[in-house]
Amino acid sequence: MRTAAETTQVRRPSAVRALTVLLATTAAATVVVELLNWWYAPEQEFGLAVRTGWAMLRSLGFLLLIGHVNRGRTVARPLGLILAVTTVFAVGRLVVPRQGVPPLPGLLGFALLTALCVGVVVLLYRSDAVAAHLVRHRKTLVVAGGTISWREVAPKRPPVTAWLLTSRVAAFTYSPLMLVPALVAGGAVLDGRLAAVPVVILWFLAGIAVSYLVLFCTAFLMRGRSWARRLLVFVTLGVLAVDLPLCWWLLGVDGLIRDGGPLVAAAALALYGLHRATDPEPRTP
Fold it and tell me: Are 149 and 95 part of one and the same domain?
């Protein structure tokens, strides 16, 4: 057998190239703004280090998004939306200190990063050239007629709407958004609240379990199962019911705002996406 390879190079539209540059700039700005917040923070404590590290990891998410955009993947739009929304929340919660007013460099950096995230969302959802480019599915090995080729293959599942993909991507953020405050609480309980250690351990394990539950649920959600939609709603409400009270109890009102806010934003986006998506299952008259 022989191997076939694609050699045709197609020049990307200018809007796609601009989006790539904007994503790279946003990734770099995320790192710079977080370093500024860390530098000007009055108390460089363990909780701030965990939250800063998680926020800086989002720069890797933007780099991953660049790869999806360059390959024209359909998942780039919902991934870009959830990255932009959660990045604004993640950085915003670190700009405001517990006491006093935010430093001017932190505010300027947050304003710049917010403008970059807004620009990313506008290009992803308002540019016709970008929309026409992001239509490809992932490639895989295909054996046909004695030839092995690496080419794009449409998924066998029924076609899904962009809002359903947005709900899926938003739901995948539940687990890390639970693990971050659990790690912060772990550092807090070691300072004198040892009685809460079992709760923190269960909180951490719940965050890991949610990742598998969301993976199971969204796998059937992409196949048009209506029960998977209802299950995702229950999972979302359960995550909020567990995470928000624990944030308030172990981290206080400050932790509830800093760590609960991004989770509420992701949950609202997931539920709104489910509401906007149409039911793909045929209805019997």
Answer: yes
Q: Are residues 74 and 129 in the same domain?
A: yes
DSSP the chain: -EEE------PPPHHHHHHHHHHHHHHHHHHHHHHHHHHH-S---HHHHHHHHHHHHHHHHHHHHHHHHHTTBTTHHHHHHHHHHHHHHHHHHHHS-SSSPPPHHHHHHHHHHHHHHHHHHHHHHH-HHHHHH--BPPEEEEEETTEEEEEE---SSPP--HHHHHHHHHHTTHHHHHHHHHHHHHHHHTTT-GGGHHHHHHHHHHHHHHHHHHHHHHHHHTTT-HHHHHHHHHHHHHHHHHHHHHHHHHHHHHHHHHHHHHHHHHHHHHHHHHHHS---SPPP-
Q: State which residues form the domain around 173.
A: 157-285
> Per-10-residue mean pLDDT for the chain, 285 residues long?
45 86 92 81 72 80 90 86 86 70 80 93 90 74 56 59 85 92 79 76 93 92 87 95 92 85 90 77 41
The number of distinct structural domains making up the chain is 2
Q: Do 144 and 169 belong together in one domain?
A: no
Inter-CA distances, 153 with 131, 142, 197, Å: 19, 8, 48
Query: pTM of the predicted model, to two decimals?
Result: 0.75
- Do 136 and 199 reside in the same domain of the chain? no
Tokens for 29, please give them: 């700005």
